[in-house]
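Human: For the file, kindly provide a plain-text protein record giving the amino acid sequence and the backbone structure tokens, at your earliest convenience.
Assistant:
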Amino acid sequence: MPGQTVTYRPHHRSLPVYSLADENLGVGPSFGNSAAWINTKGSGAIERVFSVELGESCVGAVGVRYGGLGRSLRMFESHLSLHDQPFVGLRQDAPGDVEIHPAYQRRRFSIGGAIDIVETIFLPVGDSFSDPPIAYFAIELHNRDLVAYNLRVVGSARLRGSLPGDIIVEYDKNLNALVATNRSMPDAVRIFGLSTAPDRYAATFDFGSVYEPSHVDPLPNSTDATGDVLGALQLDLTLDPDHTRRLCFAIGAYAHGRSKAAAEFKRTVEYDDAFDRTVRYFEGELQRGYVLTPDPSVNAGALWGKANMRRVMSAYPQGLAFTNDPGISSNIVVRDVSWFVYGCDHFMPEFSRQMLDKVASLQYGNGKMPEYWDGVDGHREDYGLNINDNTPLFILAVNHHYRSTGDHEWLRRVLPAVTKAARYIISQSDERGLVVCTADDPRGDVWAIVGWRNIIPGYTLNGAVTEINAECAAALRACAHLVEDIGGNPREAQEFKDASQRLRQAMDAHLRNPENGLYYLNVDAAGNIHTDVTGDEVFPVMFRVCDEETGFRVISRLNSPDFWTEAGLRTVSRDDPLYDPSGAFGLLGGVWPGLSWWYAFAAARYYPDVMVTALRSSTVHYTEDPKARNTVPGQFSEWFDGESLVNRGMRLSPWEPPRFLWAAVEGICGLMLTVDKPRINPLVPASWKWLGLRRLPYHGKELTYFAARQHGKFHVYATVEFETDHVGQSYAEDVSSDVTVFSETAAVVALRRPGEVVVLIGNVGTQTTAVPFNLARIIDHARDYQVRIYDSERDSWEEFNGQKGERLTSLAMSVEVHGYRLIELREQA
């Protein structure tokens, strides 16, 4: 039943995992490092291995099959001798279990009623963006029977990928691997190896051998076959009772010829070290920007959003970036880069910086920004549009990154590109004061659509478009602030401020529909007014370029049954004549999670409850009956059919994760970035009594804070000086990692300043729970402490004076569902 097929296991000191039966998984997870990308299948095989540097899939399907020693009757009638040791194919005995971790996929099953098998697939990831272009398929076999078994393990890989079918293959015994190249592209090299010397190998056209159930014949030790061939490696082994054997297939995809590929493969092929380093990396990196709330779905969405973001971060020949279609394309869209920055600044701001610098370098001479550039060869494209959202979004992303990092020197370097872009925006205004796109290409699609929904076949969206004008008004306002922040010319700052105000007034005068108080979709290039109400209405609200009454009206209108589904917000109304829930890439009625999260952010100051519903709806949808919905737990897929709510887009969309993290941090957690002290004003449902945010990058340091509702008012505790509309206290450091909590349903945030420690224990479960915890590492055992404990259920403090530190090291408290305990410990003289 939906909602019962997936188990989510959070862990306080390590990363969470999703667990489910493999029969409930239709497609497998996707993984990426800075050099490669893989998709996996629901069967447990690798679907393809993509080279970031080449911009092509170098290897197709990679799988493993198992055989047991045994002779079928047909063999007695053949010419095989009894000494050929024939093997019969073995399938798993019953549905296996799949574990999806931010760093890997692990599949457990048994064969023959006696052999337990664990298969682990991952890509190595590290902190330098110099990851090897190699995928690992590791196998552990354990014999739980009382007798020994002879087994055959055969790994196979289609060596062509998406490149020409002129593959030649050699076996390299020094690498225990097959080395494949294209005759027409000798620099493109694949290496398919085994962690131990294989017994036999082959390059073959015998694709049927991969799934033939009656026999697993020995490979011929031949690589004579050329073209679109299958590479295969065979290992025969005897597994004694209660013994375990481990082995690993490795698949490398390289771009600089055989000798360099062989050296690189030999240097990086070690599985155990690569796996341990990758897990440690994710365990460390995903602790940054750590969102903690009473809603476990929101917490999971923020954490897995970061994991998904890291998977798509690639080191292209043109620099660090991510593509809009991993494993398929190398196009890097400026729109997507800009929105990525909004989330990435709260996780890995150094990656944001690299991309923004690259975008600035690609600016056209007139100040316009391109639609995209190719990460491999560097060419850029604008589709012939005089204006699109890329130009204002670049300015807004720079503003966000500057306010997140506080880096004045960087802003000085990039500000000329920002002001040039702002002046270009002004130059595209008409006599009404509106920014106008003049595109009239009869092809429609990307050549005639301005804005984020730019891939609708045969569709045109031009003229004065509300989405673009809202972004441009916000961008001009941001540009004025940036000039002021850097101590620039006051007249220049005023120029942009006035331009922003004029544009906002023009929107009110010409883009507001007097019939319903909402915005027109657009007034097209021919002067036709389009009254369509779509999800694009969120932009004036999200960018704060409309009055509060209009904003409230927009949020209320979109929170209606014709727009809303259990998976999130439809892009257009179900009642719209253009409604097409399964076509047009979901942009005329499908459900895009990213739009739901834009809406969540826009709704925050009006309906905090609606914001939480919007954030959790799509993340929950990913995990409920993934086989039926074509989703993968923990991955943010691209878009859902507006009726069936089945995913019809990418399994892992690069666009969605950063928007979720941004909405969670700057919406729910209420963090406002400034050029100085942050402002912290949580925007949460009335039923929420606490929230926390740990290790958020801010102005070159890390910010941790939590908010606890006491007597109806929030008290905010943070590791920096900050501003708030609530009661606030500042502490010196985050010591949360030094508190041990013995519960998977408890979150902890601990702060310390001289002579005082405060600890929040929050309940993220579905019922009241007893929480044992240990404070031994954050207090002085020999000191006396004055202790205060706040119980959110009783909404009151309890005080305990003269408590010895050694008695306070191990405590246990009951914490109500969605509630918290707050422990203050002050040293006594």
Observations:
- The mean pLDDT is 94.
- The first helix runs from residue 73 to 76.
- The chain is about 25% helix and 30% strand.
